[in-house]
Every structure is written in C-alpha cells, then in structure tokens.
Amino acid sequence: MKTYTHILFDLDHTLWDFEKNSEETLYTLYEQFELAKHGKFTCDSFYRKYKFVNVRLWDLYNKGKISQQELRHRRFVKTLTGLGLAEHEVPEGISEAYTSLCPTKTAVFPHTYEVLQYLQPKYGLHIITNGFKEVQQIKMSAAMLHDYFGEVVTSECCGYKKPDQRMFHHLLERVNVRPEECLMIGDNYECDVEGARNAGIDQVFFNPEKSTTRRRPKPTYEISCLSELKQIL
C-alpha cells in the first residue's frame, strides 16, 4: 500500500455538513424575515429552492463565471423570485444574515472527530477549499476543527480555485511536500478528484449519498463514510 505523509481535506460537504447547517439557518431566516406573510411558499419549499439555486451558482463561481459578491446576492434573489416574490419584495439584509449565521453552525459529518484524532498523529492534515477565507475560518472555529489542521488554503487567498492544479501546487509548496506523498479527500468529483489527479495527487472521493453516476477515470479510492478512511490509512 502506498505511503502518504500529508492528507488534504475539502471542508464543505466533506467534514462540515453544509446541507444540515444551511437548512437550519434557512429555517431561522424564514421566521426572522417573516417570509410566511407572503403566503406563497412554505419553509420546506424555501429550503429546497435555495439548495437548487445555490448549487448552480456555486458551479458558476467554481468555473470563474461569477464573483463572490454576485454569488451571495443572486442566490436569494433567484430563490425568492423563483418562489413568486417580486424582486422588490426580497427582504433587505437576508443575504448578510445568512452569511453571518450559517458559518456559526457546528454540524459535521459522522465520525469526523474520531477520524481526525486517528489521523493527526500520523499525518500532516491540511484544508484546501474554494470557500471564502473569513467564512471558512468561522466554520472551523465554531465546529472546533482548527486544531487538527496545519495549512488552510482558500481560493480567495491563493488566487486559484479547484480544480485548477495551481491551487494544489500552492499548498504543496507551502508544506514543502511532493504530490505523490499526499492524498486528497473531497466530495466534488470535478473539483477535488480531477483537480487532485491533475496535480499528481491520489484521491478519495467522498460519496455519502452513494451516487452510482459513472465517473471516469475512477478515483484512487471511494468511500461513503469517513470511518472508511481507517481502512485506507
């Protein structure tokens, strides 16, 4: 079995449970901004529509087609107008409220702390994320993840976004390690798996939904639960 010295983790959807934390935040905002008074949609439909819109806007952001500011502004405008509100009815400040509240949520995927405690004595652990620097720092502090990791590289601070291999090389240079000594773990096949492969790094595709979509070439490893990392490392 190949010997690794450093493990690279994505943060959102891999360690920090974005869906659970976002859902909890959106339910709070539904009440806080009295969205029920419009009488056009339920809290559940608000969450489902936001999730649909947000995934597509993040895809555009990852491909460099929209900016951070556009992403933050457009996701609530597109969500709420898609649910029947006029644009002038979109509550002022709802985007800022989401950005302030969501990162303070603390849900992580099952076995996160157990696996990090298992890995930390054996490997250098690092985060590589397309998320925004300030937001990711708040998430890691709130969820008590900071102490497990050395470098935390965001696309905002290095100037590149996954899957651009230059983002991976930036982290490798900071740690002074060769690609073949590293293993990348992430949930996004294009950003995490293909990006790492193009940088010469082995990959673990984290697939908790057990999606059966055929992906070529296959990742080095595929898991549906973080606890499975103990069988690899």
UniProtKB/TrEMBL annotation:
Q: What is this protein called?
A: HAD family hydrolase
What are the UniProt keywords, alphabetically? Hydrolase
What PANTHER family is this protein classified in? PTHR47478, PYRIMIDINE 5'-NUCLEOTIDASE YJJG
* A molecular-function term among this protein's GO annotations: 5'-nucleotidase activity
Q: Which domain of life is it from?
A: Bacteria
